[in-house]
Amino acid sequence: MEPIRAPFFVGLVGFGAGIVLLALWYFLPQPDILLLRFLHGLFFGFGMLLSVTGGFLALCVGLVYLVYFCVQPRTAAKAAK
Questions:
Q1: Pair 10, 60: CB distance under 8 Å
Q2: Buried b (16+ CB within 10 A) or exposed e, 53-73
Q3: Torsion of CA 44, 47, 49, 51, to 10 degrees
Q4: Cα(6)–Cα(62) distance, rounded to whole angstroms?
């Protein structure tokens, strides 16, 4: 299960970074210049992309990781018999 550990933590870090970017976007005032408004919206889009993809990756891989840890002691107990 070592190969699953890295994507799980990458997903968690991506989710956290996306949440931080969305919080920054929320507290930044919306500019009046059109180009800066576009960049403000792009900032929101990048934050959403990171939070959604990171959260999805962490959720999917985390469930596999959780099932592995729940099943592992049972297989070791069966092998000991």
A1: no
A2: ebbebbeebbeebeeeeeeee
A3: -140
A4: 11
Task: Answer whether residue 1 shows pLDDT above 90.
Answer: no
Distance CA 6, CA 29 (A): 36
Q: What is the pLDDT of residues 20-79, one digit of tens each?
A: 999 999 998 989 999 999 999 998 999 999 999 999 999 999 888 888 888 876 666 667
Neighbours of 36 (CB within 10 A): 11
The total number of residues shown for the chain amounts to: 81
CA distance 37 to 22: 15
As given in the structure block, the two tokens for residue 68 are: 């592995």
28's CB contacts (< 8 A; 6+ apart) are 40, 43
- 3-class SS of residue 32: coil
